[in-house]
Write a structure and sequence with these properties.
With about 200 residues, the protein is an alpha+beta fold. It folds into two domains: about 60 residues; about 80 residues, Gyrase A, domain 2, CATH 3.30.1360.100. Helix content is about 55%, strand content about 20%. The protein has four helices and five strands; from the N terminus they run H-H-H-E-E-H-E-E-E. Strands 1, 2, 3, 4 and 5 form a five-stranded antiparallel beta sheet that branches. A hairpin with a 2-residue loop joins strand 1 and strand 2. The longest helix is centred in the N-terminal third of the chain and has 60 residues. The protein is elongated and about 150 Å long.
């Protein structure tokens, strides 16, 4: 076995090792710069978010103080008065839309021959019309026929049973009915059935 170096000049791989070391240092320096940049960015972002959170908390506490102050200045009686006035205005509007002509036209179509109406009293509550109707008839069958005719129109969703009934000396039956009335839409108050509302 030959142990001697036959080359006249020995060859060392110093250049390759130097290149690898240089590449390693470049990569390490780039990674260090990248990490440093990211740390600085996160630190700046964290500072901004902390400042923003502090600003939002102070704004929220300021708004809470303002809301408490406003609640202290509210006059509950004044609000109740305004609410009552608004209800009264709505009732007046509802009464304005009530058409007696339209109602009596319906009664004329539904009233049997042996039944006559002696009194009608409307009551408006939250846009709902309730009517108390006093009728005089020969008997219970005639009153029941009138109630059935009212229900068939679709304008009287609730026709309750008679509130009171009594027989007069002449044998006629006086009955008080309470019904819910839904007037046809698009009709103006005080107009006949041909009049429209815009």
């Amino acid at each position: 076995m030959i142990r001697t170096n036959l080359s006249t000049r020995p060859f060392y791989n110093e250049r390759v090792v130097s290149l690898w070391l240089l590449l390693f240092f470049v990569i390490a320096a780039a990674a260090t710069m990248f990490n440093t940049t990211r740390v600085l960015e996160y630190s700046h972002s964290d500072t901004e978010q902390g400042t923003s959170a502090s600003r939002d908390e102070s704004r929220a506490s300021e708004l809470r103080r303002s809301a408490a102050k406003l609640r202290g200045t509210i006059d509950v009686k004044q609000i109740e008065r305004a609410s009552t006035q608004a209800r009264q205005a709505n009732d007046l509007i509802d009464r304005r839309t009530f058409s007696w002509t339209e109602l009596f036209n319906v009664f004329e179509k539904t009233l049997p021959d042996d039944v006559r109406i002696t009194a009608v009293r409307p009551n408006v509550d939250q846009g709902r019309f309730r009517l108390r109707i006093a009728v005089v008839a020969r008997g219970v069958e005639d009153v029941n026929r009138f109630i059935t005719n009212l229900q068939k129109t679709g304008m009287f969703p609730q026709v309750g049973s008679a509130i009171s009934e009594r027989f007069e000396e002449d044998g006629s039956l006086v009955t008080n009915l309470e019904v819910e009335y839904q007037p046809p839409t698009g009709r103006a108050a005080g107009h006949s059935s041909g009049g429209g509302r815009r």
